[in-house]
From TrEMBL:
Name of the protein described by the UniProt record: PARP catalytic domain-containing protein
InterPro entries reported for this sequence: Poly(ADP-ribose)pol_cat_dom
SUPFAM superfamilies: ADP-ribosylation
Protein family according to the UniProt entry: Belongs to the ARTD/PARP family.
PARP catalytic domain sequence ranges: 32-110
Species annotation: Pagothenia borchgrevinki (Bald rockcod)
Length: 220
């Protein structure tokens, strides 16, 4: 016996909805917004939260803000520092145009931005000598494309609480850290912008237009 139904299912690559995580082996889609991580010291974390990111003056991929979708990569930074002085910031990154750098001495390894790209992406396990960990690495040229949205890791609860409070203050008591979650699609809402909800045209159930899946029995 066949069963009739109505509905839809959406597969999201993470580019449309900030905060979704895409596997580090998958290329960030141009113009997407992705959750990534940045490792830094406690002092630098305070400065970044209060004033925003600044470009690193040097690095394997040239000038920019270095981040990764792999939190393990960020946890190792700053290199050669005491683990008790390491903080991992959770960030949202507007990647813009993305250039894949997948071999040593790539012709655009440090000049990708002059060719019109906003982010350089080193995939995991491509064998670059400069990336001994084999973990994904990204470099975002414009610091304004990188926004701190959370404290992913801190050396102790006291530092975690301090940085979280500083983040809330820097957002004026609101921002993404205080975002509500839609009861239907379970996604975070932007402050002051609730999701549009309506009734399903088949079953009459309340749905959110951003739901990734909805099934209902068809009417006889």
């Amino acid at each position: 016996m066949s069963v009739q139904f109505s509905g839809w299912e959406v597969f999201d690559d993470g580019a449309s909805f900030p905060g979704l995580e895409l596997d580090s082996s998958q290329k960030p889609q141009s113009r997407g917004v992705y959750t990534m991580y940045h490792g830094t010291s406690i002092t630098s974390a305070r400065v970044i939260i209060a004033n925003g990111f600044k470009q690193s003056s040097k690095g394997m991929l040239g000038m920019g803000v270095y981040v990764s979708r792999n939190i393990k990569k960020a946890t190792a930074y700053p290199l050669r520092s005491n683990p008790t002085d390491r903080v991992v910031l959770q960030v949202h990154v507007r990647v813009g145009r993305v250039k894949r750098i997948d071999k040593d001495n790539h012709p655009m390894q440090q000049t990708w931005h002059s060719h019109g790209y906003d982010t350089a992406w080193v995939p995991p396990k491509v064998g670059l000598l400069a990336v001994r960990s084999g973990l994904e690495e990204d470099c975002v040229f414009d610091p304004k494309r990188v926004k701190v949205v959370g404290i992913a890791k801190a050396p102790n609860d006291s530092i975690q609480k301090e940085l979280q409070e500083l983040l809330i203050q820097s957002c004026g008591g609101g921002g993404e850290g205080a975002a509500e979650v839609c009861s239907l699609c379970k996604r975070k809402t932007q402050q002051g912008a609730p999701h549009i909800k309506q009734q399903c045209w088949e079953c009459g159930k309340n749905i959110c237009i951003l739901m990734s899946k909805h099934f209902c029995p068809a009417k006889p």
